[in-house]
Amino acid sequence: QGIQWTPVEFFDNTIICNLIENSTSGILAMLDEECLRPGVVNEDTFLTKLNQLFANHKHYESKETQNARRVMDTSLPPKCFRIHHYAGKVTYNVTGFIEKNNDLLFRDLSQAMWASRHSLLRSLFPEGDPQKVSLKLPPTAGFQFKSSVALLMKNLYSKNPNYIRCIKPNDTKSAMVFTPELVLGQVRYLGLLENVRVRRAGYAFRQLYGPFLQRYKMLSPRTWPRWAGSDREGTEVLLAHLAYPGEELAFGHTKIFIRSPRTLFDLERRRQERVAQLVVLIQKMFRGWRCRTQYQLMRKSQILISAWFRGHA
């Protein structure tokens, strides 16, 4: 629209997504690699590989990487690593990672479930169909998670989603109880602080010049009842008459932008007051016309009656 815009700095979560689910060097990829590697495999070898791979990553840390950086942190126990997410730090314990990632359903069990006469069981285990037997290794839990997320994102990108963010005021589900720490954490983790910064820097309202002028043109005597110029010129004349601060408005190529909702509410308030005045004016003019019409009819009748009476006399 050609308006002046101030860039808003916000955290790009791409680096965290790549750290976790990069197909070649992410944490989930390293977990799958450890599960498939021959030899002695346990959580210690997995954590050692992560420490070597992400030793210089600014969003990853563990006890070993802290020692290499000469950082003393007693809050991070051994067999754990920590990821610096955009909203805060999250600590993960690697105990059980290998076992849980390999928690697979054996192929013969899937075939046994598929051979059941119960239609629901057959529908739950389609991979047990002998005609669809695959010699590939069954997918790990991490791979299934990535596939599920990818399918979800593909579905979301094909739609026009609208998000409603719900915030719990307390943990006890009690009325009239507000826990500031709990609410602040939810606001931070939902990314609402970044949204607020963008909203403050941006414009709360935007509309094409034509509909805007048509709705509010009665607020200025120069644009009411008819405006002969272009819609943009009429909008500029209207807002200049209303004397709003210049930083509250921005004129694009085809749209008017209003920064603060307060300005929009003031426009609506003035419009309601003006509509009430116009309604009174219309009522006044109609009542005057009706009275004049009735008076003229009575006057004609009186003249006619008088003429006939004088003629009769």
UniProtKB/TrEMBL annotation:
Family: Belongs to the TRAFAC class myosin-kinesin ATPase superfamily. Myosin family.
Single Gene Ontology MF annotation: actin filament binding
Domain Myosin motor: 1-272
GO biological process, one term: sensory perception of sound
GO cellular component: brush border; cytoplasm; microvillus; myosin complex; plasma membrane
Positions of region (Actin-binding): 149-171
PROSITE patterns: IQ, MYOSIN_MOTOR
Protein name according to UniProt: MYO1A protein
PANTHER family: MYOSIN (PTHR13140), UNCONVENTIONAL MYOSIN-IA (PTHR13140:SF291)
SMART domains cross-referenced by the UniProt entry: MYSc (SM00242)
Keywords: Actin-binding, ATP-binding, Calmodulin-binding, Motor protein, Myosin, Nucleotide-binding, Repeat
Highest taxon above the source species: Eukaryota
CDD domains with a match to the protein in the record: IQCD
A Pfam family recorded for this sequence: Myosin_head
